[in-house]
């Protein structure tokens, strides 16, 4: 699921894109923001569908083996345990999953050679042989082979990674979220009634989180000039071109959060943006941003420009 850190990253990416273009339409930019978040969920659904199609390929493989010129007894009567994998059967019957597959128009069957390559890699593993030989057919046991396929076959396949990278521009950033969502789905599918299992939601509280990320994005852009002046006032000894654009955006977002989100503690806001600077800006950005934000925070406190709801939320 997306947490607040991931949502801040999404806002950061789209504010950066806004700064880098001359066509600045707020409505379109907000739509792009929400689409970038929806892409994470689509990535998750496509991965679940890929797992499903790999198990379905068992039937195609059985037909190919039976049609060989000189089929062996094993070819004529192959072990199709994976085709009836209990977790996948529950997933395929899940109405949420069915609706999502239709929404995103997922169809891995359009690439049979792709599926065949993945399936053949799976067939060559001792883990798959052990799975077929094990008479245990419980739901938990069915999840274990799916975990193996996901972690050791799919995520290790360069062809699969390239396919996802080509479709999702933020794959490198979003893949960990997707992996967590797949893992949570495997954990949460515990009921043998397909209508009682739930897919992993995009966030723990999407109504609240959706408002948070949209407000953070919109308020930062609407008050862009105001926040720029606040930063300029505290960086008079710095030439503007020496300040990295990413540093400026991170500071503007932090100021926005300090001034417009009364339920988020000051310390949480400062720490979050300092942490993001480690991943998205220069090696020296962390200390630079920390020093500037500390001065701006002092200014905001003196002018009573920060309002927080609850005890202790204003103190660092």
Automatic annotation (TrEMBL):
Record InterPro entries: NusB-like_sf (IPR035926), NusB_fam (IPR011605), NusB_RsmB_TIM44 (IPR006027)
GO molecular function: RNA binding
Keywords (A to Z) from UniProt: RNA-binding, Transcription, Transcription antitermination, Transcription regulation
PANTHER family, per the entry: ANTITERMINATION NUSB DOMAIN-CONTAINING PROTEIN, N UTILIZATION SUBSTANCE PROTEIN B-RELATED
SUPFAM superfamilies: NusB-like
Family, as annotated: Belongs to the NusB family.
Native source species: Pedobacter duraquae
Domain NusB/RsmB/TIM44: 206-296
Any one Gene Ontology BP term: DNA-templated transcription termination
Regions annotated as coiled coil: none
Protein name according to UniProt: NusB antitermination factor
Pfam families according to UniProt: NusB (PF01029)
This protein's GO CC annotations: cytosol
């Amino acid at each position: 699921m997306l947490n607040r850190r991931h949502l801040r990253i999404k806002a950061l990416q789209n504010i950066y894109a806004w700064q880098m273009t001359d066509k600045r339409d707020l409505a379109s930019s907000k739509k792009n923001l929400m689409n970038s978040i929806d892409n994470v969920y689509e990535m998750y659904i496509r991965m679940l569908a890929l797992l499903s199609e790999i198990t379905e390929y068992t039937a195609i493989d059985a037909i190919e083996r039976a049609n060989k010129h000189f089929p062996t007894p094993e070819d004529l009567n192959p072990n199709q345990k994976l085709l009836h994998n209990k977790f996948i059967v529950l997933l395929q019957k899940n109405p949420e999953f069915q609706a999502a597959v239709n929404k995103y128009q997922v169809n891995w069957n359009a690439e049979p050679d792709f599926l065949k390559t993945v399936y053949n890699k799976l067939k060559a593993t001792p883990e798959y042989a052990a799975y077929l030989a094990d008479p245990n057919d419980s739901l938990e046991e069915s999840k274990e082979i799916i975990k193996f396929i996901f972690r050791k076959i799919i995520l290790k396949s360069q062809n699969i990674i390239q396919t996802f990278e080509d479709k999702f521009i933020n794959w490198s950033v979003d893949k960990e979220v997707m992996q967590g969502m797949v893992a949570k789905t495997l954990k949460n599918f515990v009921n043998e009634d397909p209508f009682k299992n739930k897919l992993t939601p995009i966030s723990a509280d999407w109504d609240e989180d959706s408002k948070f990320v949209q407000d953070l994005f919109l308020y930062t852009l609407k008050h862009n000039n105001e926040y720029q002046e606040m930063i300029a006032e505290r960086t008079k000894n710095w030439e503007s071109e020496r300040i990295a654009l990413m540093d400026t955006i991170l500071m503007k977002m932090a100021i926005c959060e300090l001034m417009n989100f009364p339920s988020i503690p000051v310390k949480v806001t400062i720490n979050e943006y300092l942490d993001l600077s480690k991943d998205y800006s220069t090696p020296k950005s962390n200390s630079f941003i920390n020093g500037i934000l500390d001065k701006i925070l002092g200014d905001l406190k003196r002018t009573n420009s920060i309002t927080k709801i609850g005890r202790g939320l204003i103190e660092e």
